[in-house]
């Protein structure tokens, strides 16, 4: 009859028991291993010495748990928090454990729907790295919502936040523009956007919605006359 050996270290014991090792367990094991380092390790390069604790403390069971947690991770609030958790878990895995393509797909699947819709092309771009995908996702999240709370079932942008280079005639009478956030104002200002209808390609004094008012505002009339002259 085979016998089952008990884990030899606190970290292995915690992993075998289904939980994550505590900080004190890691410190205790690191101290034990430091006291038993051989001369080859001590006389080796600094780079190899720095990798040794990570390789020793992250046993196969714990690495598997971290990899599973990484693949199951989902965005529950902001992209910034999700990206921080994702990169935190991936940093514990050795280089090459997951390919960049797998990491990109996993990060993409964990994003909320409204972000996935706007970074779809980056996922299938072989020249786009995981870092670039994360950066694009952060920009999308910041530019559109700017620290708002999100509903898990939200699957699109608000009616006033639809960027287009050309105004759509059928939509002009139905657009309802609310108060813009700082991020949205900055986005429009930097991309030749209109504060009236939130579309790109023109300023407010050239907005079709502004022109619908008879005579327009005093500012609009003044700027229109300046353009004619």
From TrEMBL:
Domain CCHC-type: 194-208
Signal peptide location: none
A GO MF term: zinc ion binding
Superkingdom, natural source: Eukaryota
Keywords assigned by UniProt, alphabetized: Metal-binding, Zinc, Zinc-finger
The name this protein goes by in its record: CCHC-type domain-containing protein
């Amino acid at each position: 009859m085979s016998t089952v050996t008990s884990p030899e270290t606190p970290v292995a014991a915690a992993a075998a028991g289904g939980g994550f090792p505590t900080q004190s367990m890691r410190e205790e094991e690191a101290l034990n291993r430091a006291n038993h380092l051989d001369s080859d390790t001590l006389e080796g390069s600094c780079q190899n010495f720095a990798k040794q604790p990570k390789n020793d403390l992250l046993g196969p069971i714990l690495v598997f748990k971290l990899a599973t947690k990484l693949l199951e991770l989902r965005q529950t609030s902001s992209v910034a928090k999700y990206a921080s958790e994702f990169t935190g878990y991936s940093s514990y895995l050795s280089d090459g454990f997951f390919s960049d393509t797998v990491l990109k797909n996993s990060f993409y699947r964990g994003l909320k729907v409204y972000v996935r819709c706007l970074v779809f092309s980056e996922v299938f771009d072989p020249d786009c790295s995981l870092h670039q995908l994360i950066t694009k996702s952060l920009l999308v999240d910041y530019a559109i919502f700017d620290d708002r709370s999100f509903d898990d079932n939200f699957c699109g942008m608000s009616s006033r936040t639809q960027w287009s280079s050309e105004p759509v005639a059928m939509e002009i009478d139905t657009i309802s523009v609310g108060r813009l956030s700082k991020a949205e104002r900055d986005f429009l200002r930097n991309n030749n956007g209109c504060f009236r209808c939130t579309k790109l390609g023109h300023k407010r004094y050239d907005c079709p919605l502004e022109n619908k008012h008879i005579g327009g505002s005093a500012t609009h009339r003044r700027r229109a006359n300046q353009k004619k002259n």
